[in-house]
Amino acid sequence: MSQGVIQGSMREAPLPDIIQLVSQGGKSGCFHVQQEASRARIYLRDGRIIHAVTHAGEGFEALMEVALWLDGTYRFEELVPDVPATITKPNASILMELGRRMDEWRVISQKVPSVDLYPASTLLPGETPHGVNAREARVLALATGYYSVAEVAEAMQKPVLTIAKDLYGLVMAGHVTLKGIRSGKPPKIDAPAAPQPGPQAGSPQALPDIREVDAGGPSLPQAAPIAAGFPENAEPLPETVGGGIAGMPAPAPAKPAPADDPQRMVKLMNFTQRIAQAAKMVLPEAQHEMVHRYQAKATQQIISGDGPEAVKNLALAISRGAVDAGCDADMVRTLNTHLKALFATK
């Protein structure tokens, strides 16, 4: 059985990449995934993902729980799975969604580092926040310091990543702080399924999607997944000294988003992660530190309000950095082709 075992750390190798590698070999077996006390099992049959189990449930959403386990470990064991096929989506769409959620959590965890922390509102009694949508208003009502992030999600009957993303926006807006110890009083929960109206709240029957967080203004339309292309209002990547990035149609010009727009910032930071991942797939390991350095700089620029310009400049800087590091012309052309594909597909 030892010949059929693959194991490692999700910090060193993202789980979606490992699952894809195993699935391409047409293998059958089970991924045992663990982060601290949390455990999951992901089953493959002839290379296809067919089932997942966690302590909270099973099926597709159980698999998506693993998106919050960035520091976990995995072990794949070859076997003939005797489990029901609860997942029928193709592997490509499953792994793309899992990767997107992991990218999202990497950004959110900068302000919400754990779902075991306790959110507490910083608002004064009777103070009315501005620019808070209906679901965020419900999160604020439950943010007394008594419930953890995970418990707020359970009380609202929403995915924990959805609530964590709401809290990211509320923390960015200064409406919520996170504590490590339970405090305060249990908030009243009259009807979890019926949202309470908040300032600028929309129709109660149309709660915002996970990608509709906007603590700085009215809810924005749902955006395309990050994996599908560059965030809206982006400019085309210019031609670089390495050649190859040119000829992309330019979207209609638009003003960059303000620095306090949490939704846009998350989207842009997610895209810098995609650019960095694409670059590391092409460049040798010796250049990965250069990629991380430029990505960190772009993140700071996004926080400062540079918006899509910072993302465009990130790709340009990586391409030029590859040339300056002495990478051969074929490698640079391949790199530019990957970067161009990220900006062109939408």
What does this 3D model show about the protein?
- Helices cover 39% and strands 12% of the residues.
- The chain has helices at residues 15-24, 60-65, 91-108, 134-142, 149-156, 160-172, 262-282, 288-303, 308-324, 329-344; strands spanning 5-9, 29-35, 38-45, 48-54, 57-58, 73-78, 118-121, 176-179.
- The strands form 2 sheets. It has a 6-stranded antiparallel β-sheet with strand order 1-6-2-3-4-5. It has a two-stranded antiparallel sheet with strand order 7-8.
Features:
346 residues, alpha+beta, two-stranded antiparallel sheet, 8 strands
Taken together, the total number of domains comes to 3
Percent helix: 25-40%
* Ends apart, CA distance between termini: 44 Å
Q: What is the string of helix and strand elements? A: EHEEEEHEHEHHHEHHHH
In DSSP terms, counting alpha (H) and pi (I) runs of 4 or more, how many helices? 10
Q: What overall form do the CA principal axes indicate? A: flat
